[in-house]
Amino acid sequence: MGTEKLYIAGSQDKTIMRQRYREPKIKRQGKYYVIRITNTDGRRGIIRLGTTLEEARVNFRDYMLQLLNKKSDYPSYRISLQQGIETYLEAKRKQLSSPNSYKRYNEIISNFNRVMQLKFPLINYMDQIKEQHISDFIAYRVDKEHIAHRTANCERDTVSNLFKYLIEEKNFLSHNPVKRIRPLAEPEPDEFFYSKEQTLLILETAKKYSKKIRWDVIFATFFYTGMRRNELRFLTWDDIDFTKGKIFIRPKQITPTLFFNPKTKEKREIPVHPELLPLLKSLSHKSQKWVFVNSKGNYFAPDTIRTKLREICKSVKLPVKSQHKTRHSWASQSTEDGVPLDVIQSIGGWRDAQTMNRYKHLTDSYKTKVFLDRFSLKKDKEKDNGK
Fold first, then answer.
1. 172 — phi, psi (to 5°)?
2. Which has the closest alpha carbon to 230: 323, 156, 153?
3. DSSP code of 151?
4. Would you say residue 212 lies in a domain?
5. SS3 for 253?
């Protein structure tokens, strides 16, 4: 398709405008009509104006009027709310390897778009959004839709990343209205972990559910290794060395479009505990690739394991917690048994000790016992013979 030159009548200095923007022309690129501009830093960029020529002409005139009337201190296209969201989500779709992660981003941004249209229907452009609009969005989600403060802070961070992307990567905006919005106060972290007695009860109860699926081995692997959910879901037979007694956590391709990467992006080894080794050897090879599979021989869906743990805990009247608490339990029980912290950090796959400390909880009875056994003001920890 040909190009079309558009100028705003009454421009006092077309020479300067032509020199800076090299005579912007509307062109067809894929399903969008675009213009190519040169920003003040000399970088070139493509701006989407719309999916129809009529929409592109209107948006182009709005852009030029904004520049000529100095409505913005940044010479870039005045991007609409819908265009900004589409641009960001398209970038995330290409960046993220997990469809579930993209789905979560899409859900958060869709909530933001929905609330903005509901409460502020007159806002059409990204640069119209101010700090108060962001505060009202968060308040609406918390007060009216009853989301947790932690979820609200996650949505705040995601919306902030939306603006950062449009500012830093696309040069569409100059101000991030989320920057000065402080996160909501979150409740104290849940330091619950399953004791050894509770863990053994879970494993014993899991045997009753292990007719078609070996849930006893699945949860034993969690409690003996501290593995993350996806590390277990995507564990292959090649990842287990039965001779050396080791499990290897490493990147792998799950499907043509799905890849698994360890959270720290690094390979690591997990020693297989002697009590866990015979359980792993007892597994039948229902799949030539995957160690843990559902009744159809495929790797588990994300929520299947969590649902089964809740079912087991309810049946024996144990606290119903998230599946990730098996990892907390492993770290806490290892600490109470005297395993050095650097060993726990290395096996568990934490990048730094500060992160690991959020998983390592201690019971009051353990802290009291260790303190009374090891602390003394007397030389060489002499005892008073019971006094």
1. -90, -25
2. 323
3. H
4. yes
5. strand
The residue type of 256 is P
244: which 2 tokens?
């050396």
Using alpha carbons only, give the angle 204, 208, 210 rounded to the nearest 5 degrees. Answer: 105
Do 104 and 234 fall within a single domain?
no
Residue 161 lies in a domain: yes
Coil, strand or helix at 204: helix
CA atoms of 344 and 331, how far apart (whole Å): 7
Helix (H) or strand (E) holding 64: helix 53-68
Domain interval for residue 147: 82-169
Residue 4 has pLDDT above 50, yes or no: no
Q: Specify burial of residue 226 (Cβ count, 10 A radius: 0-12, 13-18, 19+).
A: buried
pLDDT tens across 293-338, in order? 998 899 998 889 999 999 999 999 999 999 999 999 999 999 999 8
Token digits of residue 328: 């907390």
Please state whether beta strands 4-5 and 25-29 pair in parallel, antiparallel, or not at all (unpaired).
Answer: antiparallel
Instruction: Please tell me whether residues 226 and 130 are part of one structural domain.
Output: no
